Amino acid sequence: MAQGIIRLQAKICAWATAVGKKESEGPLGSCFDLKDPTDQFGQKTWEAAESEMQRRTLALAIQRRELKAEEIDFLFAGDLLNQCVASAYGLLEYPIPYCGIYGACSTSAEGLLLAGIAVSGGMANWASVVTSSHNSAAERQYRTPLEYGAQRSPTAQWTVTGAGAFLVGKEREEGVSISRGMVGIPRDSGVKDTANMGGAMAIAAADTLKRFFDASGASPADYDRIISGDLGYEGGSILCDLMKSEGIDIQEQYSDCGQLIFDRERQDVHSGGSGCGCAAVTLGGYLLPRLWDGIEKKILFLPTGALMSPDSIKQGRTIPAVAHLVELESRTPRENE
């Protein structure tokens, strides 16, 4: 480790995604593995549906790599619900040592970093990462029940109904390389508005990204894509402005999972997508296949998380945020290089 950069020797060798109706109708709809037009996945409650998405995606990822659950040394999982119950219940049947993690919408990157550390450090041959969110469950917990019909502000984002599961193995395995990472530092811009999560989280993304460029000597031009997790249109614009004020122009390489997953005009999602599932399903459904096929060679994956709770919101506290960074590289060089 040098100046906060973690050098890793691990690969993402298998993955799977599950989404709900709105996500399946978006621009990336054809990329996802499991889809349910009812958002219920055969369950009676939204919370149970979220757990079921986690259970099914991990089962599919394990099946694709032709492993047994008993061969996996660690399971890193988290979600947005209180005490991460979607993960606890959804993964209960798996005989895998379980570490519940909470990074809000940055959980996918946090899990990949922890899995990469475990594998690179010789503590595991295989580690799994699972995360999810459900629009109806998240709205009920953090905002208002859907039946209330609250008006949404222009900066509001749509919590993705989705789950992603990833299997991380050693460098010798076939897969997409996790080459470097950086753990985020919590930052607080003073935003209190839960309908402006992008504005609250942009400062954390800018902090991690600048620290990474300063420590690594890399520049935006070294990457095919620099993608945040769910800053949406509002937060994405702020991030680009913050980086430009530091003399770093990321505009050409920048994109955001929350901008990609929905059609802003056709689907009326205001400032884009959000939730743990947003970055996870975009990574598993869209980004990893492009890296696997060599369409893109190297990307920076930078999900952000708002570290709030229902009680902190009611108490009028500000919304701190964190952004974890993972550098991902294609398993094979491009044919023309």
How would you describe this structure to a colleague?
This protein has 337 residues and is an alpha/beta fold. The protein has helices spanning 21-24, 46-65, 85-90, 107-120, 135-142, 197-216, 232-245, 257-260, 264-267, 276-292, 310-314, and strands at residues 5-19, 34-35, 74-78, 98-100, 126-133, 158-159, 162-170, 176-182, 225-228, 254-256, 273-274, 298-302, 304-306, 321-323, 325-329. It has two domains: 5-170, Peroxisomal Thiolase, Chain A, domain 1, CATH 3.40.47; 177-329, Stage V sporulation protein AD (Peroxisomal Thiolase, Chain A, domain 1, 3-Layer(aba) Sandwich), CATH 3.40.47.40. 34% of the residues lie in helices and 23% in strands. Strands 1, 2, 3, 4, 5, 7, 8, 9, 10, 12 and 15 form an eleven-stranded mixed beta sheet that branches. A two-stranded parallel ribbon has the order 6-11. Strand 3, helix 3 (85-90) and strand 4 form a beta-alpha-beta unit. Helix 6 (197-216) packs parallel to helix 7 (232-245). The chain is globular and about 45 Å long. The model is unreliable at 333-337 (pLDDT under 50).
